[in-house]
Amino acid sequence: MLSAVILFTALGCTGTIEGGSGTSSGGPSDGSDGGGIGASHGYTKNPGLRRLTRVEYRNTVRDLLGVEVDVSRIPKELLIRGHSVISGAQKTGYTDIEAYYDLALRTAESAAPEILDRTSCDSSACLVSFADDFLPLAFRGATDADTEQAYRALLTDDAAGATTRERLTTFLSAVLSSPHFLYRQEIGRGDGGESGELAPHEIATRLSYLVWQSTPDAELLAAGESLRTPEGRTAQLARMLRDARAREGMRGFVRDWMGVFDNRIPSKDSAVLAGLPADAAQAAEESFERAIDAEASSFATAGYLALLTTDRVFTNATIDAIYGVESSDTEPSSTAIPTEHRIGLLTHPMVLASHTKESGASPFPIGHFIYENVLCETIPPPPPGIPAVPDDEENDRTLRETLESLTTGEPCHSCHMRIGPPGFAFLPFDPVGRFRATDGRDRPFDTSGELVLPGGNVPFADTVGMIRTLADQEEVAHCIAKRIFRFAHGRFEASFDTSEIADLAAASAESRAHVQTLLERIVTAPSFTQVRVVR
Amino acid sequence: MTFSRRSLLKQMGWWPLLWPLLRRDRASSQAQIAPKRVIVLFSSNGPIMVRGPASGTETNFQLHEWWSPLERHKADGVFFAGCHQAGVPFGTHNEYGHQSAGTGALTARTTEGTNNATGPSIDQFIGQALQANGVLTPRRSLLFGLHSGIGHWGPWYEAAGKPIAPEANPYRALEQLLPSLPADAGSTGPDPRLVRKKLVLDRVYGDCKGIVPRLGAEGRELLDFHCTNIESLEKSVSSALAMPRPPACVPLEKPDTELGPDANWAAAENNDERMKAFTSLITLALACDVTRVVGFSFGSTAERFAIPSSYGIPSSAQVDSGDSGPQHHAWTHVYNEGDDKRTALRGFTRWYSEAVARLIDALKATPDANGKSLFDSTLIVWTSELGHHTSNPLEPHPNGNIPVMLFGNGLGTIRTGRFFDGQGRQESALTLHSLFVSLIHHVGLTHIDEFGNQGRGPLDWLAG
Fold this sequence. Notes:
The complex is a heterodimer of chains A (535) and B (464). With 535 residues, chain A is mainly alpha-helical. Chain A contains 22 helices and eight strands.
């Protein structure tokens, strides 16, 4: 029962930028004043180095060495306006390097026995041929012969260990700790200037992490100069989309889009988690990923907007408990759900948990997320000095009525007239997505409203209506286009990206954010083979 | 940044010959001089309802009951009341109290409109400065806590805009510590784990030389930061290789806890055990001279910190910030002065106080290289995210009346058993800045007279 009035700054006292939209902690995490075309802050520039995200690190190690690693031990990405991929913001400090080394060592210790077994090597000299194949892949073609020789030397150096296994462990630890491994290089051929061309291996790397969220395979690296042509890149893209790893690419983008960077279910109040299975967090995450995978099962038809309006969810005991359904299978399976009250990823526990507080209602954080992540509109943080509002148990108003009365005047109204309505549409849902038809005083929720958009206000009748209406808006397709550009390039768009963004946005709207269409447009654009480094 | 390095192979080839000599030199110096250490403790939220930690006159004062677990260390402490938060514009009391306290409490720097910390926290500053001035230890600093994750609002920052998270799992913390422990006296050679680590760091540092010249300004800045830290870590490892194990250094097989590595270390019910475990690790780290600087936080800013249910903290109903339960932050947002709120906030403050007291107990009970105790050469500062608003005790984000305590006499340079009352004056905002400089001077960096962007020299008053 909600007896307390929610602070109408809505963003209060979370103290962390993790999860959710970039300003869910009460302030933009980078101090920037906005983005989009023409943004003047540094994150529109490519620093030439893009540190692997934790997902990329995990996938890369899996593909290179066949080892699954616990990436919770290495640094999290600093979110910039809700994006995890802004490369210029990712500083690597002393404790980070310790963490990278520790994980590299653990990984090396796990991988070494299998490598020795597979290569049948019992001497360091034997392992040198392993290194000949491994190093170009691990460093993604970014190193020269001298550098590779320096790493190879670790395999024959007594100081690296007394046994072959120890030397291999040292070698692998060094490779995985190297800046050549930890950073994707987008430096170009030499002096670059404002519009230098990337080297073929850098194009291959950019393509690989966009589509697979992992390292380029040998075939992609061998594609060489053909990657300079749109046809060459399109051909590789088609091959890559047929590979199972393409699901990871789609998962990575959707997580970034939906602001699902961590599993926030365990952070909810015990009262919220009561009645859920012990493995609820993991089960919800699995359901979320399978929903994305299902859409990615055929890139001929896969579309991002479809994820907003799908009536299917992968059920398990946790989803059953949250969605109020009873799935018949013991194994997770795709089940059609009634769409009277919920639809698509926006009502999925993983997404809601990422944008709600520990308990109670969170209309403004959710509304903020809708506007920033789904509509690409910048909502500034609340001004300082807004006082907290004491309990008002005497008042018989609903929560919505109270919050609306508090946000009708400036400086609140200009933002809250936007974030309020879509946020109120989620009032029936608790922080992990359970639906309730009435509030604590048996009053039905008013989930109607209007989306305030540049082209005019668009009304909706309820939660599902809001989501369907949202998915139909051109602005959402345009926003997906911008976000996938940022995802591909690791920066916000600058003034020289105007025409490409416009083309991408139009294609997104026309195709309803068809994944393959968007990827093809991105990879065939001239900017895909360029770096714009300011020297 | 220079890249001229000795050949790796040549360097490593000298180790078997040099190692005994380096250890002998280090051992002889260790026997006579105790390293000077600093521990920085941070608790989130604040007492809110009361002005602590003490009242009275400079030498005739009483600890507030909420801080009474520290009574047994009163004679060894200096207690500060009425001080304004470091790095926070005077008079700020609103939601941004969390943000400004988080970015300023330990950095002593205002955000300058960036919504971010504009410098390192005091623990990181001291660790970096010690290394830059040739005082090398196996770890530049250590950071532990009862919470995890990077809080953008702090309180720990490695550099401007670079928040760092403490290690919140004691077993993982020990995994990190053990490889840094000096080899024991019976060792016939350097620890092969450290030898490997140095080899790897030297190799990867060599990569920087090839990449940096090809980058533009922003890329250079990123990679310079990375590579400078590789170099710093390499120095730490070299130090670990060179130093002998101090007599007081007794490695632990496990942290001091009844719980195993797979326990739910994030659970409030385990916070007593977690605190006990970390107390043993902090003591180990200092006894083994793994570092001279330890940071420890009970929570990040606005932490929903909870303690075992046996302490009887009542559960708050949902507050205007959306949270509820028997946790510290929720109770700071209850807008009344009822008994339950008082019980809760008193409970948290006493829990923190007891934890600090037990840490001091452990340091006093552990011998140092010079035959005295670890505590004798250590300064411990405990500060809080928020304090108390004198005229509006319901204010949940007060940046004034921050309760601060300093324990240790700085090897005779500090007159303890005293009380300082800043009385809420604006100039008290600089008291904590000066206190931080005193910490810097304690570790031997007396040429550094500024910390933060409103820095002053040391707090001369401490000398009495």
